[in-house]
Amino acid sequence: MDKSKVDYSLYLVTDSTEAILGDKDLYHVVDNAISGGVTVVQYRDKTSSAGGLIETAKRLQLLCARHRVPLIINDRVDVALAVECAGVHLGQDDMDVSTARHLLGPGKIIGATVSSVSEAFAAVKAGADYLGIGTLYATNTKKDTKSIVGIKGIRQILHHLGARGDEKSREIKTVCIGGIHKANCQLVRYQLFAPSIPTSIPTKGIDGVAVVSAIMASPDPSLAAQGFKSALSSPPAFV
Ligand code: TZP
Ligand code: MG
After folding, report:
1. What domain of life does the native source organism fall in (predicted)?
2. What is the distance, to the nearest Å, from the Cα of residue 237 to the centroid of all Cα atoms in its chain?
3. What is the Å distance from ligand 2's center to 88 Cα?
4. Centroid of ligand 2 to alpha carbon of 94 (angstroms)
5. d(C-alpha 79, C-alpha 75), whole Å
6. Which of 58, 175, 65, 54 is nearest to 120 (CA)?
7. 135/237 Cα distance (integer angstroms)
8. Which pTM does this prediction carry?
9. CA distance 186 to 74
10. How many CA atoms lie within 13 A of 113 on its CB side?
């Protein structure tokens, strides 16, 4: 995998809880979601033991490798190393990005959750490959979310990365997360994907949307992913 070529446009974060996955099979859902157009998969599981995480991650890694879609492990550098997947996603309370980089080496993807301009610059400096910016909208999927940054907050972070940063900040990949559904993703696209205010200042658009429930809880994850793909690639109907 060449990490510089990863397409972040539709980033699926898994959730195995009853409230979201229900009685569906995790692998079946992920397989269908990839068939529908998901471009990155993050395995996020807050309850399994290390052994359980590794077992599931190994199966997901086989599945994702078959589709040539990168698998990222949430929180756990040790699990990412054990299953030799594409990389890891770290929150502000997880292992710090520079230590993870030291352990994983230059070829693995490291993503970092950020909610502010200062966190974004710190993650870039520490060697992150992409930023998960959020929480965009309040969501039942993550009730302990630190801050709701909204469209305005995300635009501010993107603007600072694009205008004030060095080359690494300007080029870092970004996805937004939190409360994104098919119905609002065109608006998100319109407001965040391309800098919509004409300006001479070099600013940045977002590279993708990260979603949990809109795909994982769907009775038809493939159709749900296809819905995102078409919403993200067609111009919004309301402009
Ligand atoms: N981090 C910030 S919000 C969130 C995570 C993992 C959950 C987003 O879930 P959903 O169902 O797409 O709103
Ligand atoms: Mg975490």
Report:
1. Eukaryota
2. 26
3. 10
4. 6
5. 9
6. 175
7. 25
8. 0.95
9. 27
10. 22
